[in-house]
Amino acid sequence: MTREILKELTENFKQQRRIYSGMLDLASEQLAILEKNQGQVYADEIESLLGRRNNLLDDINKKNRKNKQLQLIIVQELGIEEFVLAKLESKIEADQFQALKEQISGLSKLLEMISEKDQRSQDLMQQSINSKRHQKAPSSSRQASQAYKQSMEQKADKS
Fold it and tell me: What letter does residue 42 receive in the DSSP assignment?
C-alpha cells in the first residue's frame, strides 16, 4: 500500500512542478513587462497575467491539499513523526526515495526562481512608486509656496 501511495505522491509533486514551471514563465513575463516599463504597472498589460497566475495558484492549492493527505497516510503507515526525506530514506525503497527526492528538489529550485523574479518585480514597482513620490513632492511644495505667496500678496493688496 505504501508503495502505491508513494508513487501517487511522487506523481503529485511532478504535477506541481509542471504547474510551478508555468508560474515561473508568468513571473518571467511579468518581470519583462515591468523592466520594459521601468517598474510602471499598466493594468491592461498585467491584469490578464495576474489572472493566469491566480488560476495556477488555485491548481497548486488543490494539488497541495492532496499532497498533504498523502503525506499523512505515509507518515502513519511508516510510523514516523513527520514527512521528512531523511526519515523516509531508510523506510522506503531506494528507487522510490530517489524519485521523490528529485521531484522535491526540482520543485524547490522552481520556487526559488519564482521568488527571485517576484522579488525583482516588487523592487521595480517600489522604485517606480518612490520615483513618483519624489517627482510629485517638489511640485506639491512649489504649489504650497505659490499659494502662500498669493495669499500674502492678497493680504498686502487689502492693506
Answer: -
Cell numbers linked to 132 = 513618483
pTM over 0.70: yes
Task: Using only the alpha carbons of the chain, give its radius of gyration.
Answer: 27
Higher pLDDT, 65 or 139: 65
* Tens digits of residue pLDDT in 73-108: 999 999 999 999 999 999 999 999 999 999 999 999
**How many whole angstroms separate alpha carbon 50 and alpha carbon 41?**
12
CB 27 within 8 A of CB 119: no
Dihedral sign from CA coordinates of 91, 93, 98, 101: negative
In one-letter notation, the amino acid at residue 139 is: S
Distance from C-alpha of 92 to C-alpha of 18, rounded to nearest angstrom: 25
Does residue 155 carry a pLDDT above 60? no
Instruction: Report DSSP letters for 85-109, one per residue.
Output: HHHHTTTS-HHHHHHHHHHHHHHHH
Domains of the chain: 2-158 (1.20.58)
Mean of pLDDT over the chain: 86
Instruction: Give the distance between the most distant pair of CA atoms in the chain.
Output: 97
